[in-house]
Design a protein that fits this description.
about 425 residues; alpha/beta; 3 domains; two-stranded antiparallel sheet; 7 strands; elongated
């Protein structure tokens, strides 16, 4: 098809959108030449600028028509520059004699056409880009000059949303909750210290996954976990069936104090990591293969037989391993109370660790954070802009729910 024929077809499609033939042809030429449609002098910018100025004129006409009885009338225009995603626009705002006109499209003190640029900045920030990186990106992509102070102010606006999210009411029952902490470097009083971010990742009775909260403290400890669990109760959680945790000392006892009827599943993967601390490098593969026979057994009885066999084989070289498994046996083997579907969900804290990997992905370039607030703001935006990767329904939930109802009975049903 010739270019002339393509021009005719495209021009016909655009006729209602761009009535002026000369402007319409300029737009078509820019498309074929693959020119930057958002650059200085581009047709997009001209069209948008013309639309905005025309709309403001329309607003003034409507305003005067509503007050025909008075003597108010037009009184010239004031010029100002406004940022937009198509670059900087020159806006002519109409004035009236008595100063009663309040434009809606672009307010008197407004310096940005829409909130679209705010969303772009927050999106860049959520991807882990620094303020200077964002400033350069906006210049390169949109031809917009935005100061570092403006970008900081825009990201600070998110604190209202963070506070609402962190204090929102929760559901009364969560069948499964994963608890884990991740550590970051933060500047405080002129020093760089390590701080723990506590993550609560739950599955509700509809099988929907959600992050119930992020909390910060100087270090991970059972006592602080207890305070966090109390906060969950304050926000409406009255019952949790299963907590999936790592091997933090005192963790089980703290959970029992706040949610006395909850079952605790200790992470098998963490237990294996702990066990290999005692193993010589040359024996690690063999020991791990024998440990696998324990946690992959058909039921608890078979698992106990596998543990006895492991102890007979390795007790002389590594007596600490079997002892550690026996000391934590009930929490390690609780997952065997269920079928394969639930076992896969609770035998490890991998689901919350996957959330932490997402958080690490966007923050790995940072050496240290300027403050606790800066870190929480970054993590919140990262999670918000990547919800699809962690906020999804648990696989095969109908079958899982049926089994949980059979196991917990009336305790489960009263929350439905």
């Amino acid at each position: 098809m010739s270019k002339q024929k393509k021009d005719l077809i495209l021009g016909h499609e655009l006729e209602e959108i761009i009535p002026d033939a000369a402007i319409r042809q300029k737009f078509i030429d820019q498309l074929y030449k693959k020119e930057d449609l958002f650059s200085d002098g581009s047709i997009f910018r001209s069209l948008l600028q013309g639309f905005v100025n025309g709309a403001l004129d329309g607003e003034m006409t409507a305003h005067l028509d509503e007050n025909k009885e008075g003597k108010n009338r037009k009184n010239g225009k004031s010029r100002k520059k406004v940022r937009s995603q198509s670059g900087e626009l020159s806006i002519l705002t109409p004035r009236d004699r008595d100063g009663s006109f309040e434009p809606k499209l672009v307010g008197k003190w407004q310096r940005e056409l829409t909130t679209g640029l705010d969303n772009v900045i927050l999106s860049f920030y959520a991807q882990g880009q620094s303020i200077e990186d964002i400033r350069q990106q906006l210049q390169n992509l949109y031809g917009v000059e935005v100061s570092a102070g403006t970008i900081s102010a825009i990201t600070e606006k998110v604190w209202t949303s963070i506070n609402e999210w962190q204090n929102r009411a929760l559901r009364s029952c969560y069948p499964i909750i994963y608890l884990d902490a991740i550590h970051y470097k933060v500047r405080e009083d002129g020093k760089i210290i390590s701080k723990a971010v506590y993550t609560i990742y739950g599955i509700d009775q509809d099988g929907e996954r959600d992050i119930l909260g992020l909390y910060m403290n100087n270090a991970e400890g059972a006592r602080h976990w207890g305070m966090i669990l109390e906060d969950l109760k304050r926000r409406g959680v009255t019952d949790v069936f299963i907590f999936c945790i790592d091997g933090l000392k005192g963790f089980k006892e703290v959970i029992g104090e706040v949610f006395p009827h909850a079952n605790v599943q200790r992470c098998i993967v963490h237990m294996i990591r702990y066990s290999t601390r005692f193993i010589s490098y040359k024996d690690i593969k063999k020991v791990c293969a024998d440990l696998r026979l324990i946690y992959s057994a058909v039921d608890v009885n078979q698992a106990l037989i596998a543990l006895d066999s492991f102890e007979q084989k390795w007790s002389k070289q590594y007596p600490e391993v079997a002892k550690a498994w026996r000391d934590n046996w009930d929490e390690l083997m609780f997952f065997m109370s269920f079928s394969t579907h639930i076992r896969r969900m609770i035998y490890t804290t991998n689901p919350v660790e996957a959330v932490h990997r997402l958080m690490r992905k966007t923050t790995k370039a940072k050496g240290a954070w300027s403050s606790d607030n800066a870190l929480i703001k970054q993590l919140y935006l990262t999670l918000t802009y990547n919800e699809k990767s962690w906020k999804r329904k648990a696989f095969n939930w109908i079958a899982i729910q049926r089994e949980l109802i059979d196991f917990y009975g009336e305790r489960y049903e009263k929350h439905l």
